[in-house]
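Batch job 17 of 40 flagged for manual review because the log was empty.
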Amino acid sequence: MRLKTIRTPLAGTAALLAAALMSTAAGAPARAEEPEPVSGDIVTAPGLELRGRFAEERYDVWANVLGLKPHGGEETLVVYCIDIHTPLDTESPYTEGDWEESEVANLEEVRWVLFNGFPNVGAEELIETSGGEVNPDWSDEEVAEVAYAGTQAAVWHFTDAWDLLADNPVKGGNSGEDEAVLAVYEHLTEDTGRVPDPSEFTVDLEGEESATFVDGRFGPYTIRSNAGPVELTAEGGRLETEGGDAVESRKDGEEFWIVLDEDTNEITVKGTAAYDLPVGRVFLATTDEALSDDAVNPMTVGDSQKLILAQPREGEVPAEWRFALDAPPEASAPPKPQLPVTGSTLSVAFAAGLALLVGGMTVIALGKRRKASDH
């Protein structure tokens, strides 16, 4: 048995960058792709007026229901105010910016609030989970207003150090809004957890140094993914479970085996993990000119309220592994044969070439031999 390496031709800048990355990035897990920034126009709907305070000072504020209608899109996204003292600019478009640029505090807590608040949790479910009650006379819009107000109050608690009053927190809230909004607020501000950042999502493959060739197939290989199930496809062969069933998707920790097509010893395995991009994306006011392709400065932030996206968007972690696989020359050959000429043992019975798609280009990882003393 011999080890082979797949060499993928790269041109120009991509080739130079791939060569530079080879010694450090090869074999690294695939990571989430950055989504395109979103811009859009603000829409508003009436909400509830909330009673609260900063420190010992009373400060009442309207929790109007805010939305962002993306340019070129149909769906209106639910957003929340994270800048309670600044008026909302309804005349200018908004565009996505960096959290650091927004200079708003407590990102982790705010993201957790949004992930567990409305609309990621349905309005009625959120109120009841929080220990509140839904008035049967409320319309669907009124139930949503209550859930939104409780979530907005919790956001302001972390971004602006604003506290909702426990006594009559909703002005005119005498139909149960007081208790329901307060219940949602307290539920979302107590014992907050953590929502992963997209940069932490990865897809990786284990087994390239331990898989063997048995009964006409190579494996096992193990998928590692913290971004959810990984959809798998193969060119040059097929993927199987331990029992021989076809593999289309694998969860973290699940295994698969490779069966090569006839007359080939190369296979490309592609994986894609789709996930909901966590909430917590900040939007800042800008101008139409700044959004144009010729803009020198892509974003100008004026004296306008900052907003944060409440709904997750879909993202993907794409990965690609390319192998050259050599089966033993005889069916009866053991999976890890000795090489009498060199006295070495192959630590793998298959691939010498592992390529991982990183940032849109293929980076080659060469197969390795281990000395006999390593076993």
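Reviewer: the log was empty due to a logging misconfiguration, but the result itself is present. The two ends are 18 Å apart (CA to CA). Unflagging and moving on to job 18.
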